[in-house]
Amino acid sequence: MFLDMIRGERIIEGAIGANGGRLDKALADASGLSRERIKALLGEGRITLDRQPATQASIKVSEGTPFAITVPDAIPAMAAAQDIPLVVVYEDEHLIVVDKPAGLVVHPAAGNLDCTLVNALLHHCRGQLSGIGGVARPGIVHRIDKDTSGLIVAAKSDTAHEGLARQFADHSIERIYLAFVAGRPVPPAGTVRGNIARSSTNRKKMALVSEGRGKHAVTHYKTKEGYRDWSVIQCELETGRTHQVRVHMASIGHGLLGDAVYGRTHPRLRPILSQLHFARQALHAAVLGFVHPVTDDPLRFESAPPADMEELLVELRRSS
């Protein structure tokens, strides 16, 4: 086993020890990390077996199987409260719903240690966030990408956190995204199914993988406005995986406009994005609905597209 240091990360490489066995235990024995740390790193897509992404702690592995674990730099034990403006859509003693702007990271991590939504919530809620998410992610039940705008809910009590987490786990949360994509989907409405896992070649990228690997993911889409080079679509998530809408729409040939990772913008549209300095995926979390985890009241929130997407839509229509 040896360790290598790159870009502020520690890479542990080696082989599964004698007798193999359950993955999390075998990796803990081979690496010196705790089983809980191994499970967390599996969930973040930071472990590979024989150069293939590994995600399930319970799978059985054989002696001698090569592995690699990417361990990120430690982040501060406690995120600091920072006075960052928030658009609060709803708030009570148990939870808070925020309309997140594009560009705001949800929680501290390597590369973004402050100026996150968590830092803003710590200031706004003044110690009233659930501790279940840990000291670096208090109150966080789900995430949306840094460059995706829209609605996100955070828990202010452990009871609310547990109740919301159950709804996310059983896929009963209503989540609808508005997206601008390349081309016109055919058929205009449909469902994309495909397991998603961390890419084996680029850890910052997700990819569709074969059945039995990764996490089951389902996206229902509907075209709201369609042209030859671009369309406005509505995506309703049955599951909520990292980069799900971006990966699924790209997989059917309709990547999001402005998405430098998965998108392929038509050459005729590139001058429009450049002129507007639109340098993010055109994706907005427009609807969030759930049952209040304490009062059992049904709650549903809607958010209009932000100014940059509205401006882009005007220019796209003008060009069509």
Descriptive notes:
With 320 residues, the chain is α+β, with helices and mostly antiparallel strands. The protein is built from seven helices and 18 strands. The strands form four sheets. Strands 8, 9, 10, 11, 12, 15, 16, 17 and 18 form a nine-stranded mixed β-sheet that branches. The chain has a five-stranded antiparallel β-sheet with strand order 1-2-7-4-5. It has a two-stranded antiparallel sheet with strand order 3-6. It has helices at residues 23-31, 35-43, 117-125, 158-169, 244-251, 270-275, 307-319; strands at 2-6, 9-15, 21-22, 47-49, 52-53, 60-61, 66-72, 88-91, 95-100, 149-155, 174-182, 189-193, 195-198, 206-209, 218-226, 230-237, 283-291, 298-302. The model has no long low-confidence stretch (mean pLDDT 91). The protein is 21% helix and 31% strand.
Poorly predicted tracts of residues? none
The averaged pLDDT comes out at: 91
Count every beta strand, where a strand is a DSSP E run of 2 or more residues.
18
Distance between the termini: 58 Å
Give the structural class.
alpha+beta
